Amino acid sequence: MKKNDTNKSRRTFLKTATASSIAATAPASMFYIKDAFAAEDFRNNPKDSKTVTLGFNVPQSGAYADEGADELRAFKLAVKHLNGEGDGGMMNTMKPSMLKGNGILGKKVAYVTGDTQTKSDAARASAKRMIEKDGALMISGGSSSGVAIAVQGLCQEMGTIFMAGLTHSNDTTGKDKRRYGFRHFFNTEMSGASLGPVLEKEYGNERTAYHLTADYTWGWSQQGSIKKYTEELGWKTKAAVKTPVGAGDFSQFITPVLNSGADVLVLNHYGKDMVNSLTQAVQFGLRDKQVNGKDFQIVVPLFSRLMAQGAGDNIKGILGSTNWNWSLKDAGSQAFVKSFGKEYGNPPSQAAHTCYVQTLLYANACEMAGTFYPPEVIKTLEGYKFDGMGNGATEYRAEDHQCFKDVLVVRGNEKPSSQFDLLEVVQEVPRAQVEYDASLLGGELGPYKV
Amino acid sequence: MDAILIQILNGLDKGAAYALIALGLTLAFGTLGIVNFAHGALFMLGAFCAVTFSKVISFSKQIKDESVTIFDAYKEIPYLEIWWGDFGALIVDFAVPLSIIVAIPVMILVGIIMERGLIKHFYKRTHAEQILVTFGLAIVIQEIIKHFFGANPIPTPAPDIVSGSAAVGALVGLSENLVYPWWRLIYIVFSGLIIFAVFAFLQFTTFGMVVRAGMADRETVGLLGINIQKRFTIVFAIAATVAGLAGVMYSPILPPDYHMGMDFLVLSFVVVVVGGMGSLGGAVAAGFLLGVLQSFASMNEVKSILPGIDQIIIYLVAVVILLVRPRGLMGREGVFED
Amino acid sequence: MKNLFKSNMSIMLVFSAIVLTAPIWLTPLGANYPDLLQKFAIFGLFAVGYNILFGLTGYLSFGHAAFLGVGSYTAVWSLKLLSMNVFLGIILGTIMSGIFALAIGYLSLRRSGIYFSILTLAFAQMAYSLAYSVLTPITNGETGLQIAANDPRYLDSLVGISQQGQGIPSTNFFGVLLKSWDGYFGFYFAAVILILGFYLSLRVFRSPFGLKLRAIKSNQTRMTYTGFNTRPYLLSAFVISGMYAGLAGSLMVAIDPLAGAERMQWTASGEVVLMTILGGVGTLIGPMLGAVVIKYFENIFSALNNSELHQVFNFLPSFLEETMVFIVSPFVGSGWHLTLGALFMLVVIFLPGGMMEGVTKINSFLKRKFGKTDAEESDVSIQQEVQAKAQQGGE
């Protein structure tokens, strides 16, 4: 069916090209067409080239710029390791692995970068530039689910694999999942499932929550998940207020919380937004408050060490969940932290971790498939089971391209032992507790061949 | 009741920033007849005076961090703290208020350079051209800042002692639930002082009198043989300084980034228009009024009746005022009224 | 030469030839890839339309991005509900933005000058804020409105085109996919519309209607005193330019079916102002030129980095190379906005007529030179002869 379509459009093209007045300019584009329809060929096939280009699309400005900068550091490190430079990091601990440290399939890895500006339009434009002009074979990056979903859709259309970076919305591997998109990071459903029991243990069953939510797909998704799991505990939800991303001053949203009767504030914010809203919430005396005879609490369902650094003392004692933390003691995490710290003088953030892992996973899948041909690489990644990458035994579920692994529940460290020791792991929630059926979130992956 | 009082306070604190920026903007417009799209950039420059100052005085020595064992890490300790101990740390802590001392001369200088270097050549050109050239200038200024400071917001915290909140309610004998952050209260008071100073200056000094006369009838004042031009340069410098100081004091509330000027520019133009182009009192009144309106529009009770109103209230007011009463709340009749 | 450019026909021929051969002559500039070519055409169209308002009447609107956004959203909804054929989406997008322009223009044009600017700005910001927040069911907020595999597409299913089970369908123009020819079809599609749009703008410029608009610009008060009602003319210009913006917006969607709220922000409106001024406000070709320059900066200049700069300057001795890279580097890469802002200021200060005025100035300068050429040339040759002789004599 699909094949017929392509043939048809090709014929139409030939007809129009010869008939129309623009025939004079057609040869330039004809040149590309020839390649595009050869058997087994695909966009940006590196063929005899000695290098293969990957495209890293991260926010370099906007509310998530800090995370973006750390993601870029991780990508650069991953490229180094793939090309056999440096100490190899997680390449030494990854199991099973076919990576040899000589690039991918013998080709040296090169990369190009783009700035998503945390805007869908800009992100798609820079992804397109990397694919169409720079010949990128794989796109990775993220830090905003809105952007990740927009770029993932584009990559499906272009037939380019998208290894999502930090994106936490359920929709990325749910409603908006795509055959060409893969996510290693966890999602809000898993955050809710892991955080719920801890919240019950710490704060009891009779709480009234007030949500402040970043007004886009991730915020909605997280608000939904946290609501679902806290209401299961018997909590009530007083209000859920949407706030614009990058608002900066959240005071007008925080003042109504003061006298609302709620005794828990759930901040569905991330990056700079979370740093600002948390700082302001603390400035407004929320943490010193007593409501309904209970201490007022703040919960930040998605945590990161970078944010903890920005928020300083305000973060101490606050509960949240995270995909990975540098304090983990397994061999994979240790190797990665050592390698990253040596390179940059900072431990990696969870955003850096997921991007690094994604790059290695893609490279390894190409090695295993023995080709860069995307449908084959996709088939290799689907259902792929691996270990030694920092989260224990992990599986890329074939049905929705979501990784399943252990999730961390963390608390802002009251007594940090060093300037980076900001998150204390409360619980390593086992994979079984956060797993759900793929049909829960819906969506459709789409075709292998585009 | 508490809820309403706290929304009013919140509105005043937003309004204080709007009023200060709009004050300078309308001053420049009323006296020089210039529509300055780079005024937001001046606000941003002020905030970056605070950033620069606090960076300079917290210039740090890198010391190996022994607590991190897995790789070599370094921590930074400001030289001032090394040299002067606790007193040094205190100075670093008070960077933002102290930077006012630096910001005033810097902003005056920036204002003079801007007026002499660019603005004065545009007195005779159309408003559209003034908008365009200052819009270009705003882009240039913010890109220069971006080049040196990066695109990320830079946290510039208030001194520790005022980083918490004040029990305003208990102070005035109301409910204990009524608390408000110290720094925001300071900002409201600070803006009141600046506004008072500007008005006093214009009202009670000879210089101010000439400027006011110039605002009313520029030609006649010129005919009287008074060098109005030179005074206008000073007026522009004052406008720049007011915007800059507003920025300095705002930096603990909103970590400054290179784009903050543009974000405030549109709002402050709306404030000026609502108050009446060229009306100082109007700008101040409209600034506080719009701040309070915006704060009330963010209340859940209001939003449940009019969803989304908090996002557009300011623009809505502007549209209504412009269509119904284009001279604004306190503008003089005939200014742009057509 | 002069007559050649006077006639509409020849202008159109030259313009079409330049636009359609863009993939060839832009290759050495590194700009020959579909996404950027499409942007040139689409933003060129946007700027050409904006120029009908600002260039002819002098009314400075800071809200035209809103119409672009409305066009985009309408087109996506047409793709979702009616048909994947972009023909319908483009028509509907243009009409819808025309309706919005009519409403906003009707109110905003009650004022002039800076008040008009601020009114348009306020309306556009309201549209942006609402699209971003409460209108999320229609706009999908920050994430942006996208098409999905299971959208109803009533018209398509009516005529029996079903895309079920094949993932997300691609946009087509009567059966030809816009992404075919490796994306170049999308460019030619946009280019043809740009040429049509340009032709319309040419006709407007040279019509009695255009003349009246210019008269309003030069002295509206006088026009009013002669008993001439300017409002309908201004409103028509406003709506036409709004429809151009909507057309550009729906074209963006036709090529890449996604609409995001940030397209409507006032800085996006500011961008089209920059394009128009930079190229030459009120000139026919200027805005198009400005759009190309700005989009080229945004996409190519912004991706330059230091190592590429070193390549550019490596013909210089190494210390000079370092200095040049040091001087130039703040202006390229992420600093491209700085170049743009500085360039824009220079244009407003020294060349209020934009790059087109620059071209005219150089042209007339050359002509002056050209007029004298014969005499000058002979002068030079005589001098050379004299010098040569003198040298010979010296030896």
Task: From the structure above, extract its key features.
heterotrimer, A: 450 residues, alpha/beta, Rossmann fold, 3 domains, seven-stranded mixed beta sheet, five-stranded parallel beta sheet, globular, disordered N terminus, C: 395 residues, mainly alpha, ABC transporter involved in vitamin B12 uptake, BtuC, two-stranded antiparallel ribbon, two-stranded antiparallel sheet, 71% helix, 2% strand, disordered C terminus
Q: Can you describe this structure?
A:
The complex is a heterotrimer of chains A (450), B (338) and C (395). Chain A is of the alpha/beta class and 450 residues long. Chain A folds into three domains: 2-36, no CATH class; 51-185 and 327-405, Rossmann fold; 189-322, Rossmann fold (3-Layer(aba) Sandwich). In chain A, 40% of the residues lie in helices and 18% in strands. Chain A has helices spanning 2-19, 26-36, 65-82, 120-133, 145-158, 188-203, 217-233, 251-258, 271-283, 305-311, 331-344, 350-369, 374-381, 431-434; strands spanning 51-58, 108-115, 138-141, 161-164, 181-183, 208-214, 236-243, 264-268, 290-291, 294-295, 297-302, 319-322, 385-386, 394-396, 403-404, 407-412, 423-429. In chain A, strand 11 (297-302), helix 10 and strand 12 (319-322) form a beta-alpha-beta unit. Chain B has one domain (2-53, 100-324). Chain B is built from 15 helices and four strands. Chain B has helices spanning 2-32, 39-57, 79-84, 86-93, 95-117, 127-149, 168-171, 182-204, 206-216, 218-223, 228-250, 260-275, 280-297, 300-305, 309-324; strands at residues 60-64, 74-78, 165-166, 180-181. The two termini of chain B are 43 Å apart. With 395 residues, chain C is mainly α. Chain C has a domain at 11-283: ABC transporter involved in vitamin B12 uptake, BtuC (Orthogonal Bundle). In chain C, strands 1-4 form a two-stranded antiparallel ribbon. The model of chain C is unreliable at 374-386 and 388-395 (pLDDT under 50). At the A-C interface, helix 1, helix 2, strand 2, helix 4 and helix 5 of A face helix 4, strand 3 and helix 10 of C.
